[in-house]
Structure formats: C-alpha cells, structure tokens
Amino acid sequence: MNDLQHTLTHLDAAGRANMVDVTDKAATTREAQAQAWVRMQPSTLKLIQDNGHPKGDVFAVARIAGIMAAKKTHELIPLCHPLMLSSIHLELSVVEPDSVRIVSTCRLNGQTGVELEALTAASVAALTIYDMCKAVDRGMVIDRIQVLKKQGGKSGTFVAGDAQ
Predict the structure, then answer these.
(1) Which residues span the domain enclosing 131?
(2) In the structure, what pLDDT confidence band is assigned to residue 1 with cuts at 50, 70 and 90?
(3) Quick check: is 4 in a domain?
(4) Which end of the chain is more exposed for a tag (fewer CB within 10 A), N or C?
(5) Residue 32 domain-assigned?
(6) How many CB atoms sit inside 10 A of residue 129's CB?
(7) Residue 79 annotated as part of some ligand binding site
C-alpha cells in the first residue's frame, strides 16, 4: 500500500473501499459544525423575511429538511456509518442584502465523527431554500459549504481558518 492509501481510512489492506471498522474505538462526545450560504436577489430574501412566500415559512421548512437529512446521511453517502445523533441544530440567518447563512451543529456520544451529518444538514437546508424559491429566483447560488469545526475523538479539535 502506498502512503496515500495509509491516509485514506476507507481503504482496506488490499486498497479496496470499505466501511471503517470502529468496533474498538472508544465512544466519546463528538460535535461538528458546518455551513452553507445561499445568495439570492434582495427581493427574494425580502419575500422570505416577510413570510410572504406562497409555499409558507421557507426557513422552517429548510430547518426541518436539514434535520431530517442529517439523520439519513448514511443512506446518502456510501460507507458512512449510521449514527444515533443526540442533537441536530440549524441556525438560518439573513446576511444583508442578499444572502442566507445556514449553520448546522450535530452532536453525539459515539465512536465516529459527525462532520458528514453536519455538512448534509447544511447542504439540504440550502437546497430546500433553492427548491422553494426557484420559481421567483432561478439565479440563486449555493456556496461556501464547509466544516467550520469539529471536536472529540482521536483526531482532536479542528477549526476552519475562514469560518465566515
């Protein structure tokens, strides 16, 4: 096996993709925070803020979609462990004049991290905003999807250099 294969944890001794065996890892409290941004026309953002969208409360639906998605991450991402998350929180904030910032935080006490769940929650919440608003603003852009921080587990704490 080459050096790259040693750093990729989803490869077995023969270089084949497999689910990482976490049986012998200690359960610890793990938390990850991720973000996604949705940029849109100011008029679209005003429609959302004024709760004037004919489909209802865009932020409430996006928050629920993100929570549901985090719980199903293992069904979406190959080789991802099914996890019993103890907490999923999504914060949607308006960043004037044309953006929504979504920050998701996932937490558990377990044997593996929750970065993918946090990323999935933020991404699906952003996609839900796009879906609900695409009829009035097809030019929306989803970007800046990233892990902001993670803590717990063997690899310790990570904080992104550019958390905004």
Answers:
(1) 28-151
(2) very low
(3) no
(4) C
(5) yes
(6) 25
(7) yes
**b/e sequence 101-126, b meaning 16+ C-beta within 10 Å:** bbbbbbbbebbbbbbbbbbbbbbbbb
Query: Quick one: tokens of 6?
Result: 């040693």
Catalytic positions: 131
Cα–Cα nearest to 146, from 125, 114, 119, 128: 119
80 is in an annotated binding site: yes
In a domain, 157, yes or no: no
Model pLDDT for residues 69-113, shown as the tens digit of each residue: 999 999 999 989 999 999 999 999 999 899 999 999 999 999 999
Task: For residue 81, say whether it is annotated as part of any ligand binding site.
Answer: yes
pTM of the shown model: 0.89
Task: Tally the domains of the chain.
Answer: 1
Kindly tell me the burial class for residue 86, based on how many C-beta atoms sit within 10 Å of its own C-beta (0-12, 13-18, 19 or more): middle
Q: What percentage of the chain carries pLDDT values higher than 70? A: 92
Q: Specify the residue for token string 């084949």.
A: 16
Strand order in the sheet with 141-151: 87-95, 99-110, 28-39, 141-151, 158-159
- What residue type is assigned to position 102 of the chain? I
Do 53 and 133 meet the contact criterion of CB atoms below 8 Å apart?
yes
